[in-house]
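lol so apparently i was supposed to do this last week
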Amino acid sequence: MSIHTDASGTSPSDTPWALVTGSTSGIGRATALGLAADGYALIITGRDKERAAESRRIIESAGGRAIDLVADLADPAAVRALIGQVREAIDGPLEVLVHNAGGGSFAPTEATPETMFDTAFNIHAKAPFLLTGAFAPAMAERGHGVIINVGSLSTSMAASGTCAFQASKAALSMMTKSWTAEYGPRGVRVNSVDPGYILTRVNQDIRSMFTTYLASLPAGRGGDPNEVANAIRFLVSPQASYINGATLAVDGGKNAVVVM
Ligand SMILES: NC(=O)c1ccc[n+]([C@@H]2O[C@H](COP(=O)([O-])OP(=O)(O)OC[C@H]3O[C@@H](n4cnc5c(N)ncnc54)[C@H](OP(=O)(O)O)[C@@H]3O)[C@@H](O)[C@H]2O)c1
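anyway here it is w/ NAP bound
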């Protein structure tokens, strides 16, 4: 089966499914819409019921297929429930898993409550661990599938006061390599995309503080969510068939240069 079959030429049971966590806004929504345009049926998920339904409706109005399932990935029991709901709801193989949900609460280490630390690790590391454990074995059995981990520039660089966020994103980054070793030999490609400063909800209230910083980047601006989504779509596509265990920075050049 081609994983890029035009949705118009497939019966529902042939349709490959893609699950994008955090697809109720920003990078995740842009990715879900892009993968729907590429012929995947989409599982939209996040905590916000209204925005989840809105993502689904946008896909449906463009002629695609989608379902929306609400889950708080900070709660491992909710992740397990989501896994059960996905298994019940889809009528074809889950071919693509994008671990995108996330965000940050930041504080100096000594002022970081344990709950904040645990939440960061639950969303960025444990939820991907549980979801991959649930769905990657079937991909491996079929001999094809793609997993994308959305990391962060801070996976490889530190900033003061962001220990829980950075450490949890670094854990996810290592999972890209672990899963490449584990599932790669059975046809499942796993890669990371590390966004730089992307103009989404997470920074809309503080953007004016970053004008000088963004102008100093080689690209001279912040990124659009679609620019990250396009990188993910490429890594999902057959054009990326020999890319395993890689990390693609989508950061306007931030990681490559020292700003003087
Ligand atoms: N924007 C940037 O500059 C930037 C930079 C580096 C990395 N990233 C990473 O890119 C990813 C997407 O971020 P974004 O910029 O697109 O932000 P966003 O627009 O706020 O989207 C974040 C998504 O994650 C979901 N999410 C957050 N916490 C969740 C939880 N506990 N359970 C379930 N879903 C949860 C949100 O869903 P609900 O709101 O519905 O709960 C939302 O769909 C994140 O992993 C972020 O760390 C972003």
